[in-house]
Every structure is written in structure tokens, then in C-alpha cells.
Amino acid sequence: MNHLSYLKEQLDAQPNLQYVLSSHNWSTDFLRFYHSQTNYNISKDRFSIGVKMWRGKKSYAFAIDQPDQARIDATLAEALGIIDQLSEDPDFVDLESDLTLAAPSKVPNNIEDIPLQLKTQILQELADAAQPHNFEIYGTFICNHSTSRIINSNGMDKSSTGSPIYLEVKAVHNQSQVTVLETWGGEDFSRFHLPTFKARLLDKIAHCANPVVDVDPGYYDVIFAPRCIAELAQYLAWGMSARAIDQRSSYFEGKLDTQVFPTYLSITDDPEDKDIISQDYGSDGHIYRPLKLIDKGVFKAFFCDNYYSHKTGLPKNGNTGDCLRIDAGDKSLEEMIGGVKRGLYISCLHYMNFINMKETSITGLTRDGTFLIEDGKITRVVNSLRFTDRIERIFKNILALESTASVIPFSENYDTFSISSVKAPHALVKDFNISSSTHTI
Amino acid sequence: MKALIKDILNKTNLPDVTFADVRITLTDQESIWFMNGFLRGFGSSLGSPALGIRVLVNGCWGFAGSSDLGAASIDKAVHTAISNARSGSRFMQEAVSFPALPATQAEYHFQPKIDPFKMDKAEKLDYLQKLAKAIQPQGKIVYSTVSAQFYRQEKYYANSEGSYSHCTYYNTLPQMNVLSADGNQTQSRTWPGDMSAGRAGFELFYQHDFEANTQRIIKEATDLLDAPVITEEKADIIIGGGHLALQIHESVGHATEADRIFGMEISYAGKTFVKPEMLGKFQYGSPLVNIYSDSSDPRGMGYHPLDDEGVPGRKVDIIKDGILVDQQTSRHIAHMLGLEPSSNMKGSFADDFPLVRMTNFCLAPGSGTLEELIASTEHGYLLDFTKTWSIDDNRNNFQFTTEIGYRIDDGKITGIVKEPTYFGITKDFWNACDAVCGKEDWEYYGTFHCGKGEPGQAMLLSHGTAPARFKQINVSVNI
Which CATH number does the domain housing residue A116 bear? Predict the structure, then answer.
């Protein structure tokens, strides 16, 4: 009998106990490189089980890394001794009851399928391509593999497997430190096309030949690269949760079915989009299905798990905003840049933080390729800049969206390293508030 | 465990392995979280094992980590670490190298005054429950939390040079927070602020005097709803220790991690404006600014007798009389810079690759009390309790917002301002420092959440500081 089955048997034997039992078997192969050479190679694996249990409205949780029967017995005995001493959470009603199973899918093990030798060959080819331009490459080449299972006392028993890949390459000029970024993410490595990746990286490097300049603080028309729009949407989505409503920090409080953004802005949390790294279930096991968040500018739904559904009265779903798609528009990137008299092209954002979450006020910086647009053309590299603005304002000021959307991978860098993606187009935004310059690249 | 870790080390004893180290950690963590007066989360993870094996082969690092300390897993990890280094060395230009160090043996076991893992659970929960009830929603307070995180780690380290250490550390992170609302506006106040963690057990709650501050944060959060904002372009600001700890952390601590000079962190955390040629010459701050890294001070969470590559804990001046004089380094980077290694290499858990990390990173005390400093300020603001922070990837341009600012006129506090925001360039800011308070106001602050590296690691570390004053800082930001 495996540990999970054993633990389930022990929990089932307890009177008046509700529980959620989960296991997570995670591993990564992680190559980090700098100055066009290996920094370090990491292989890492971790197996853990977690239990959250309720007796009435009293709850206690524990996790065991690398469990064995003796530790399970000891930890469970301690937990059962604690739970009745605890005070109640009056808002707890019941556990998730959605038993819908995701359609079975075949997930590769990319740790096995992409050996280190292949990774270093790819990186060497990219390094060789950047070198004649006096650029070196820095970044990460990651393959993860994880298997998760969630069981609860309402009869839920669901498993899911994922094996995302994340390649992030920053090309940095040896003298000026001007930096550009190219990334690829997904689960199907056959969709990675090295010549295309290399061509895109070299195209970005080509924009860096002109001198670096500074710009004054002020309001600028900007073209945001898909990575920026994706990240801004992720921050905006924090306010789209029932939890944020409950904590009185949601910008969207009282705005359901209200026109909040221009009609050409639609955002969906869509695990079924073939380009996006998928999710089968939400954190409490509810099936993860497409959820329209912003439909033609109208706010339509909150992410809401079972607990907060009971607490707020909002309909529950399995969504967590890990599969965001911002719909493409109708302009080519050339048209969008061509329409800017004097503005900025911003490739990446950095160290963004809310000043006031409810107001969506933020500050952050540009990074890895900020360019001046003059008379409809990208002309010069600009030092990294600080912005202070409201995401609400930024999205309301979108003037045009690119006609194609790109998939942007992101890594969640705390706890067990996870990889997700967002699909987004370039966006033209008016009056973006640049509040100061860093005077550096 | 000592025999096991040495046995693992012996397995790495191969001709092409020029250096190896092995770590094992056993970690206990407990978290308790009250929301709006009610217990919402109580959980623990006890005895979590982790193993990390790092080897240097052909001048390239290879690493394997696991939560499984079984024999088969250990053999696999040894094999994988060596294989990773050999594979990685095919994509190398300059081999990693550093001088050998003498073998060091160390034992250290911290004992908190009140062990949070052994104390009576009812007593612990009752205390926190009373705090939670005291700040639960009332009047314009619409949301409140009380939280406690307790951490205990037992750590074993051994390397191929014969060094060995066995240590036990306890750390605690206590916090409470209230949110006020008025229409669409919200304001918040925390106690004791964002940098409230420390090397201690449950006694840290008593040291921070939580009970005496519940009504204070309720009143201030409520008053902030009607408070003005700063309207000047520039102002003199006094920064309280809790927030100054973060300013030190972001604009000096990370900036002087020397792995950033060589681009080892470009892909995530970023680089630094500091260059090797600045050492000994660069006027980082005013002559009052003395900043040091001290992993030999057991009062802070950054204390260790040996770091995670066998360098004994030590105090290193980073900024002396305003001049940049040293860096936080690994053995490899110190060798490249011609410096002595500073004992700053740490991994959060044994299965994390060690990185250059802050330990106890401190601003040395000056003279005088905070009261005297306020009294000597004609007009300005006392800012404290971090609300938001941001800094560029060269650690050059920062912008911070605190929860509250106290207006100073003619040497007295005359009112409060909401969301005071200031920004600047690191060098200009530290050169504008015209006063650092003395020992009587100098304290350790700390965080559990310093993120760095990939895969990401959250480090627990401390900053010692007293309040300090900075002249004519930019405080005008149009939000």
C-alpha cells in the first residue's frame, strides 16, 4: 500500500473528519548559464504529501516531505490531538465537491527527453550566433516534471501530470550592457524551432547598434511587447479573485458586468488554448475550464474556489489565472510603431509592485530592451526607466492591439519552481507615466 | 548523520572531482494565521529532509538535490551531480577555481527563550487569538490579520577539504495588519512592519510589544483615510529602522553581491552598478555611512560558524566612512576579485544550490537618539513601515512607499501623511545621509522572504540599523 492510500485509510477511520489529501512529486533539470558558459547544472527532486483536515469548523494542516509510515503515524497522531483544541472558522462550510475529471492527455517527461548534452548544444549555437555582434548569452534552460494527486472526503480523487520547458536567453552586449531577451516555453519540444528562435534573438540584437540615450520623465505613447501586457494582466488579475473581494482589496469590487476597459479588450483564463501551458484542476481540485474575465471590455467573472464561493456568494470555478489569454487585435506591429511620432518600445518590465492594490497603482521599471520610437521607427536604445501608474489607466489607454498574440512563458520562482504561460499581443498605449530614469542599462 | 554525510562525501572522491561539499538539512516550519479575528490557518511541516551534493569537475559546478535521504537516492544524487558537472563543462570558457582553505570544525545550537515547537499550544494560540480579536474589523477597519511563522533548521555541512559543521537555528516571523476602507479608498498599517523577523522563538512577540500596539495601528489606519499626501518636490526624511533595513537591503545589500558583477544573476535578480574598479575609491555614501556584513554575530539570522562552502563566519566592512571597500563574495568570485571570501554563500535548504546571500548586513550606529534627531529637524518627515518597494536591476534607481509618514515641523511631530513615496539614485541617496542614530536606537530587523537564484530560494536574513536622516530627497511622485 502506498503512503497516500495508507493515510487515506487512517483518515477515513476517524469519526466526523473531513479532509483533503494531496501528493506532489516534482523534479527539475535546471541549466543556468552566464557569459556564454555554464554557471551551474542542477537536478533536484522532491516528494511531499499534504493533509488539511476539518472537524466541524476546526481545521489543521500538515505536510510531510519524503514520508514514511512512522512519520505519517506520528504526524497524524499529533494532528488529531491538536485539532479539537483549535477555534472555529465560522466561514467554513464544506469541501470541494466537483468530481469532474479532466480529459486524459499524454504528457512527455521532458527531463528525460531533453538531455543536458542537447541543451548545451543549443546554447552553444546561440552563443556562437551572438558572439560576432559582441554579445554573450545569459539565462536558463529548464525542464520540469511533476505528478500531483488530490483526494478528499467528498469522493474526489484526481491526478495530473505536467512537464513544462522554459528557455530564457538574454543577449548582453559586452561593453554597453544593452540587453535583449528571447524566450520559449511549452510542453511539446517538437514545436521549438531553433533557427526561428535564433533569428528572433539576432533581430533584437540588431536593434541595439545605435547609441544609448536617456529620456525625461513624462507621459509617453508606448508599444508594450507581449511580455509586458502579459505581466500587467497577471497583476490586474490579482484583483479578479473572490479572495481579493473578501480582503477588500479588489479593483473589481462592484464592477461585475460593468464596462471597465475599451471594447476591443478581452481576457480569458483558458487552459484549452493549445499554445498555453495547461492546467487540469484548480488548487482545491475543481476542474479548470475556460473562464471569460473581460469580454469586450466588460468585467465578467472572479476566480473563486469553494471556500470563497461559500463566503462571498460568487459562483465557484477552478480558475487561478495561470492560463491567461489576451485576445489579439487588428493591427500589425509595423502599423502600430508607424503611428507613433515620439514614444517608447518597452520589451520587459521589472520589479513591479503595487502601491495600492485596490487602486491598481504600481511602480516598476523597464528592462532588457527599451527603445525610442521617432517618426514611426525604432531609432535608439534608451536606459531602463521607472514608471508609476495605475494598471486601470494603462488598460483604459490601450489604443490598439496587434493582430497576432505570442505565448510568453513565466517562471514562478518561490517554493517548487513552476512554469506557466500567458498569450498576449503587442499593445499601443497612450500617456504612460515614466516617472524617472535609472540612467543605466 | 555525521557518518552519513562523510560517507556521501567519500563517494565523490574521484580523480576529476576537484572540490565537493555535501549538506543535509532537517527543517521544521509552523504557520498560524488569523483573519478578521478567527483562526484561518494552522499548519506545520516537521523534519523535512533535504540533501544537496555539489561537485566541481573540469572547472564546472554540478549539483543534485533531493528530499530522499535513502541509499539509492544518495547514490543517484552523487552520480547526477558529477554527470551534470561533466555535461556542463562542455559549455565553458573559464574554469571555476579558488584557493584551498584550512579545515574547520564547528558546532552551534541556538536555544530560544520560548521554543515555539515545544511550548504549550493552547498558550500560543490563546495569545494570538487575543491579538486577533483586538484588531478584528470595527469602525473603518474592514480586514485584519495576525500571523506567526516559526522556523527551525538543523544543518550538517562537510566538504572535501575536511571542514564540517553541525548547527541548529531558530527564527520567528511575527506580524499583524489592519486594513481600513472609506468608499473606494483603502489604507493599511502593520506591526512591527515588514522586517519583523528575527533569530528567536516565541519571545519575539513579547519583544515587539504587540499588545501595546493594537490600538495604535487601528487609529493610524483609520486616520490615514483622511490624511494629506506630501506635496513638496523634495524634503528631508528620517527613515525609521524597520524601513531603513529594507533600503539597506535593496540599495546596498543586493548591489554589493559580487555574483551580480559577473552577470551570474542577470537572468533573474539582475546585475549591479558596482564595478570591480570602484573598490577602495567609490564614494557610495557620506562619511557617516559605515556598512558591514557580519555572519559572526549570533544575534542575527545570518549567523553561521561556517557558510555553505566552508568559509568561517566573519565580519567584513563593505562601506567604510562612505567608501566602497569590499563585496559579498563566494570563494570563486573572491578569487577573481583578489579578495578574501566574505562567508556569504548560503542555500535556503540543503537541496538548494548555494548563492552569494546577505547574512547580517548592517548600517553601523552613529550618535544621538531618534528623539534628538527629530528635534534637530526643522521640517521633514519621519517615514516607516514599508508599503511597497521597487529597484532597478542595476540597484541604482529605487522607489519606496511607506504606510505612514509623520510630518515634522520645528523639531516636533505635527501630523501624518498617507502613502509617502520617495525615490532616488542609490549613490546620491546615501551621500545625502547627514545623521545616523546611535546604539540606543540600533536594532536587528529581518525577513524570511529575500528571493534570489533560480530555482528560486527565499533566504532568512537580518539587517541591523538605527534610524537615519537623508537631506532633500525626491518625494513628489504623480500616481
Answer: 3.30.2290.10
